[in-house]
Amino acid sequence: DVQRIISRIALARATPRDVAGLGKSTRRAQDLAQLLRDRPAVSLWHDRIGQAASPLVALAEHIEQACIESPPPHLREGGLFRDGHDTQLDEYRRLQQDSHAWLARYQKELIDQTAIPSLKVGYNRVFGYYIEVTSANRSRVPNAWARKQTLKNAERFTTPELKTFEGKVLMAENRAITREQELFVELCALVERHMAQLQAYTDLVAELDVLGCFARRAIRAR
């Protein structure tokens, strides 16, 4: 897995799951060094892994601290980096989170203003944010509202306040995704700086795997 992942990183084709998987695999370098310690027959391999283990474990810890436990398959919608990893990203996320409270307040304000208890403020990816009113309550809609969409039993509207809010939220969302993409590029660059150690690690593990197979066959053939 490590060999496949570092190849994808070198070609700039790595996914969030690749990098997170690399963190889990390289963390085992320390366990491998511990396993080989005080075993004269494999002292050469112990010395080789010992040179790479410390920086690789540090790399693994950085990846695990930066990325969530179950990363998304791609970064088109963000969601890879943990809260607290980057102050700029945290700020954009706070703007998005605050939007839920703003929408709830705005919906209550409109219900009080129009006396339409079933009024809803919602969102979809095609039409954006909207105010939905059932057809039975159409006569209570203020003239200042702009019609946005007509449904079978309801109509959707927007207001200048809602349009302004939508612009702020979508800007925060786009900036958050852009920032995550920047952070991902930085993370891949960090991995590339450890490429020689990662390659040595994969070669060593492959050699040990072959030696282990030879040993098992020798034991069975005794």
Structure characterization notes:
The protein has a four-stranded antiparallel sheet. A hairpin with a 3-residue loop joins β3 (146-150) and β4 (154-158). The mean pLDDT is 89. The protein is elongated. With 222 residues, it is α+β, with helices and mostly antiparallel strands. The protein has helices at 2-10, 16-36, 43-66, 87-114, 160-193, 195-221, and strands at residues 120-124, 128-134, 146-150, 154-158.
Set down the secondary structure blueprint.
Elements: H1 2-10, H2 16-36, H3 43-66, H4 87-114, E1 120-124, E2 128-134, E3 146-150, E4 154-158, H5 160-193, H6 195-221
Antiparallel strand pairs: 1-2, 2-4, 3-4
Helix pairs in contact: 1-2, 2-3, 3-6, 4-5
Number of beta strands: 4
Through-space gap between termini: 33 Å
Q: How many helix segments?
A: 6
Task: Report Rg.
Answer: 28 Å
Please state how the strands of the largest beta sheet are arranged side by side.
Answer: 1-2-4-3
Order of helices and strands: HHHHEEEEHH
What percent of the residues sit in helical stretches (DSSP H or I)?
55-70%
The secondary structure category is alpha+beta
In round numbers, the mean pLDDT is 89
Shape label: elongated
**How would a crystallographer describe the biggest sheet?**
4 strands, antiparallel
Low-confidence stretches: none
Strand proportion: 5-15%
Please identify the oligomeric state. single chain
Q: Concise description?
A:
It is built from six helices and four strands; from the N terminus they run ααααββββαα. It is α+β, with helices and mostly antiparallel strands and 222 residues long.
